[in-house]
């Protein structure tokens, strides 16, 4: 292994693991929301919206940190297609971590539903009211959430491959 700086900086590692927990929680809350018509729906929505805003803010901070302090280099013996897949999947993850909350916010705005953070504190609408746009954004939000779930599973699989099979230090670079 020829990694000059073998670990991500401490802020990157903290944000990674914090966001991993938040995103997994968000995905399961989202599944619960679309699969229930009980009184729990309102409670799940009340958690989902501010959690989405938190993920958006943390993703912006994480991206800024990543641009300021790039990732450690991948192992020199990693096949080129795996290196490309690693880089592409990470940028897709950033895109989804930023895009999904923004689409959710836009969807709520088009549906004239405020994104309440706490009590009376709500985000301003970012789109005008439009039932058709609301429906399209809802479909996009749901489809992209499934894509994020698939990408998280692939990311986890790749991390385990680096830890258990290749043992090349990639897993340790993000370990707490």
TrEMBL record:
Its cofactor is heme b. It comes from the Bacteria. GO terms for molecular function: electron transfer activity; heme binding; metal ion binding. One of its GO terms (cellular component) is plasma membrane. Keywords: Cell membrane, Electron transport, Heme, Iron, Membrane, Metal-binding, Transmembrane, Transmembrane helix, Transport. InterPro entries: Cyt_b561_bac/Ni-Hgenase (IPR011577), Cytochrome_b561_oxidase (IPR052168), Di-haem_cyt_TM (IPR016174). It is found in: Cell membrane. Signal peptide: none annotated. The chain crosses the membrane at residues 14-34, 41-64, 84-103, 115-137, 143-165. It is a multi-pass membrane protein. The keyword Heme applies. GO terms for biological process: respiratory electron transport chain. This is Cytochrome B.
């Amino acid at each position: 292994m020829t990694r000059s700086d073998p670990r991500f900086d401490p802020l990157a590692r903290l944000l990674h693991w914090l966001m991993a927990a938040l995103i997994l929680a968000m995905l399961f809350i989202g599944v619960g929301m679309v699969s229930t018509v009980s009184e729990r729906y309102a409670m799940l929505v009340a958690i989902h919206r501010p959690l989405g805003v938190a993920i958006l803010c943390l993703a912006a901070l994480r991206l800024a940190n990543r641009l300021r302090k790039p990732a450690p280099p991948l192992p020199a013996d990693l096949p080129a297609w795996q290196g490309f897949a690693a880089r592409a999947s990470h940028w897709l993850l950033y895109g989804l971590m930023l895009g999904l909350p923004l689409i959710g916010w836009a969807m709520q705005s088009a549906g004239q539903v405020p994104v309440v953070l706490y009590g009376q504190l709500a985000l301003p609408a970012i789109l005008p009211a439009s039932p058709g746009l609301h429906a399209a954004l809802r479909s996009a939000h749901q489809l992209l959430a499934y894509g994020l779930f698939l990408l998280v599973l692939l990311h986890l699989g790749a991390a385990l491959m680096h830890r258990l099979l290749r043992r090349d230090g990639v897993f340790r670079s993000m370990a707490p």
